[in-house]
Amino acid sequence: MNTKELKLVMIGAMYENGGNTTHRFLDGHPEMFVYPFESQVGTRYVQDVMTSLFPVKYRWPVFGLESTPTEDYRAIIDEEGKVRARTPFVSKFRDYPFDLNDEERLRIYCDYIAKSGRGTGQNMGAFFAATFDAWKDYRRTGKESVYVGYSPIITVDTDRILRDMPNAHVLHVVRNPWSAFADTSKRPVPMALDSYMLAWTVCQYYALQCKTRHPERVHIVRIEDVMRDSRGTLGPICEKLSIDPHSASLAQPSWNGKTLTEVKPWGTIRIPTPEMNLATARELSDDQMEEIRVRTLPHLESFDYKNFLKG
After folding, report:
1. Architecture field, domain 3-310
2. pLDDT digits (tens, 9 = 90+) for 159-171
């Protein structure tokens, strides 16, 4: 396999915007290798104007020029995956069977790089391919041809992803900012409203301008549409990837092909329904709702959210 040529769909979304939920709806598709957790592929070498706004673990990676393949692999943060594989008793996913030895995955990764050579595209292709080669209790169909990863906010790196991997696509997920902020406010140390809305608008800006430049490789969905009709919303994306757009698996979220009754502990959207989404937005005060409206106004028009709160 030429790992740089691997077909990868990288999902991006602002925090609490439905990236995890969309990732889980794609999980059971028989023609997709869907990464089991957030694909936190960033490295400490990421340094640019976005570094002060977003954690490097969520970014598209940068690798040291003099690094070895083993050093490259160890630089990939992949916090959720490596914690679950190496210290499962402290992982929030400890109740979900996951038979993967991280040292074996490293060995397989290095085998791929020995054939392809180092490079960001080759390294990322080898990382995803090695994961599924090493995952012993993964429920294979034998039809898989597309790899799927998800990392919050990685949409800001769309240009680099598409440059480094010629067969890659980016799927951006957007959620109305009121429900999103209401959910992020439930975290132990939530972001302030102004900081959250700055990050939310930056993600949407990158999604829209990259979609304009790369219309065949960048796709945008609203999580509200996924909640309302997951098969009807995600089916066209599958069709663009040349895989079955009518798979029954698109109708429900799952993990390793097993249906989830709640999208937990993958994200804060536990029950992905339009009713719960609207109810979440209405948890905010009137002043918060208005402040969010003012700070996100141009994008409310772009994504047809102007009348969302009216139900």
Report:
1. 3-Layer(aba) Sandwich (3.40)
2. 999 999 999 999 9
